[in-house]
Amino acid sequence: MLLQTQLPQWTALGPALILAITALVLFVIDSVDPDSTDSALLAGVSVVGTLAALGVAAWFLAAGTGQVGTGGEITLFRDALVVDGMSLFFTAIFTSVAAMVFVASYDYLKDRPDQAEFYSLVLLATTGMALLASSNSLATAFISLELTSLPSYALVAYLKRNRGSVEAGLKYFLIGALSSSVFVFGISLVYAVTGSLLFSDVASALGDLDQSFRGVAGIGVLMIAGGFAFKTASVPFHFWAPEAYEGAPAPVSAFLSSASKAAGFAVAFRVFVEAFPIATAVDLGIDWVLAFGILAVVTMTLGNFAAATQENVKRMLAYSSIGHAGYVLIGLAALSAGAATNGDVLGASMAHLLVYGFMNTGAFLFVALVEHWGVGRTFEDYNGLAERAPMACAAMTVFMFSLAGLPPFGGFFSKYFLFASAIGAGFWWLAAFGALNSALSLFYYSRVVKAMWIEESDGSFELTSRPIGLYAAIMVAAVGTLVLLPGFGPVIETAQTVAAALFG
Amino acid sequence: MNPWIAIGALAVVGVGIPLGMMAASAILRPSVPEQGKSAIYESGEIPTGTARIQFNIQYYMVALLFVVFDIETVLIFPWTVIYRSALEQGVSLGAVLAPMLVFIGILVVGLVWAWRNGAVKWVKSPRASRRKTERQS
Amino acid sequence: MVPAQWYLMLSAAIFCIGLFGILTRRNALLFLMSVELMLNAANVNFIAFSLQWGNVTGQTFALFTMALAAAEVAIGIGIILVLYRNFRDTDVTKATTMRW
After folding, report:
1. Distance between CA A98 and CA A90 in Å, rounded?
2. Which backbone phi and psi does A343 adopt, to 5 degrees?
3. 2-61 of C, contacting A, C-beta below 8 A
4. Which pLDDT value is given to residue A182?
5. What is the domain count for chain C?
6. B137 has a pLDDT exceeding 90
7. Which residues contact A161 (CB under 8 A, 6 or more apart)?
8. Gap between the Cα atoms of A386 and A379, Å rounded
9. Following CA atoms A216, A218, A222, A224 in sequence, which dihedral angle do they give, to the nearest 10 degrees?
10. Which pLDDT band holds residue A1 (cuts at 50, 70, 90)?
């Protein structure tokens, strides 16, 4: 209403611009004083920039910028970028996760050299995610995907004297480089048969495609799906995730497993819904809905079964993150051509990603806190932790039960809506697999809770410090997870409205 | 006529001329083998050691900066192609220049950062300089 | 004009050579070179079909791919460098402190 007429069009990209400028400001600060280890300044600037971006995104979302009621989506740069409700919704997820990660990093990185690099890399990756959510052409999708990935590789290998971190960085990089070359080859094949990279043009060109080219188009679509599978840590490009999340510094794991995954889904939703519309794709014999259905089931089953066998908490969370990617994939798997339920399904997936952003970031930040204390990494090492740090452990309990989808927490509603919408769309088998897997996941999530609250501590560790930043970030995540229970109504409503706009 | 015939002829001539010249000189010249002729030519210097050595890792940073600015020119190139015609079609100078100035500005921030953080500073390791003096004495 | 299928076969062949390199080489640097080969296979497609369709979208995308390939190499060599410092080797199968 207001914004579309009063502000120039390019301001719709405000959140991404603020993030990019903040990253550059950090570079300038570091250029002025390269040897500074002033974490308060660096973390402060990053948090202020991220919160400003979050504020702008939330304001635009509330004011209806780019939504149907106010004149529809805003396209910029000859339709290469688009700002609509979905891109703003996802930008809000990325910036909230990034803000929590920054607050936590204040303690985690204290007294390390190269802090400015850490903050600016995370900011650049967040910029890439914000652009990814609003890319409307395969070119911008690829470039912003790389802008997200490249800083992530460096961030995973950030602890350059730690063998685990370097090894994780290497594996993440190798698989990332492979998948990005597969992705770009897929784009080149789609360009070969359609002659355009804009989603809408690709869709219309696919509509009247010569049947003899459908093999090339099919391989292209398959390869593009592979690129997204990497970014979202889904089968078949999932095997980097446990290594990368375990080896990386815990705030980076939190960032990757929440924000980066959401970014991958953001662009996957848009590409598959807009560039390869279901009806057209099925006519050509490229039934990606079925492919995603199979991938969803395999991903969630594999993630949850592997998580159940882990001894290391961080690795368990990594596998559980793969499992959650499987749940979110339902959003792409329970679609059908022209169905009225499509918006509900996709919106439920987006809402789940928002809740997941809070609870999963919180869980990884708790692991960061435990690493900061120097307590070990396995379930046994967590024994009796609740006696020493009841506040943090209570928060961790909230995250665990919320991840499992137990009723009094945010994760319950998001999962409930996701499975209910899948059943509503006639894909009851997806919901059944999801529910079975959730039941299994309760087993390993509750192991953490049991270790913290019930098991006796062997008394070998001392908790010397109470890091303010880490505590604050964990509390914000916990409050977010709890507030999303009563506040889930508006969230799911917004998500389903903006998702329905995508099919309009 | 098939255009490929012209290309094929060009290729035959291109390969044939140097081969022919080498063959002709090999037949005509007297053969006087000598040690100085088969030695490695290093601009008059007497060669020391093999070429298969490990280079100093600090060249890596220089190479990296080179790659960044090499690619920068690639991205400037399309802009220069449309620059003049855009001006002729009445696009304002600011609108044409601004995107490229922003692009270069971002790169300058990066370069200044790399410079200030010692990316182009040559650090002499004590071990390497000791070895060098040993070799000279 | 050369038929479109030939370009597709050329690019597919380059892509497969790159993929073969990735699957068989254990040196991280050779892995990186193979990835470059795969990216350039995509570039062949982009430029060839830019000609076929008569628009420059493909050509500009090829420029972006080149720039991103360079950035990827820069990051990749940095990671391989710290790998060498920590493990004294660039063999990707040597780095196994965590089990797969």
Report:
1. 12
2. -60, -40
3. 4, 8, 11, 15, 18, 22, 28, 31-32, 35, 38-39, 41-43, 45-46, 48-49, 52-53, 55, 57-58, 60-61
4. 94
5. 1
6. no
7. C86
8. 13
9. 70
10. very low
**CA C70/CA C63 separation, integer angstroms:** 11
Distances in Å between the Cα of A441 and the Cα atoms of A173, A194, A379, C29 are 29, 43, 15, 40
Residue C92 in domain: no
Rg over CA atoms, chain A:
22
Would an 8 Å CB–CB cutoff place A24 in contact with chain B?
A: yes
- The label of the residue with tokens 């995954």 reads A261
A77: which 2 tokens? 């740069």
Residue A5 has pLDDT above 60, yes or no: no
Closest Cα partner for A220 from A235, A209, A234, A231?
A209
Residue type, A202: V
Q: CATH number for the domain including C44?
A: 1.10.287.3510
Binding-face residues of A in 32-71 toward B, CB within 8 A: 32, 34
**Contact status, residue A250 vs residue A314, Cβ threshold 8 Å:** yes
Nearest to A188 among C46, C52, C76 (CB): C46
CB A230 within 8 A of CB A237: yes
Q: Pick B117's closest partner by Cβ from A24, A28, A34.
A: A34
Which residues are CB-contacts of A438 (< 8 A; sequence separation ≥ 6)? A404, A405, A415
- Is A31–B112 a contact, with Cβ atoms under 8 angstroms apart? yes
The two three-digit tokens of residue A397, written as one number? 């309990």
B117 touches chain A (CB under 8 A): yes
Task: Tell me if C70 and B71 make a contact (CB, 8 A cut-off).
Answer: yes
H/E element, A310: none
pLDDT digits (tens, 9 = 90+) for A293-314: 999 999 999 999 999 998 889 9
Distance CA B85, CA B74 (A): 19
- The neighbour count for residue B59, using CB atoms within 10 Å, is 11
| Pairwise CA distance, residues A114 & A120, whole Å | 10
Structural tokens at position A477? 């995540």
In chain B, domain spans: 58-121
Let me know how long chain C is.
Answer: 100
pTM of the model as a whole: 0.90
Contact A62, A162 (CB under 8 A): no
Domain limits for position C48: 4-87
Query: Is B57 in contact with C81 (Cβ distance < 8 A)?
Result: yes
Beta-carbon pairs below 8 A across chains A and B: 22
Backbone angles phi, psi at A416, to 5 degrees: -60, -45
Tokens of A98: 């990034």
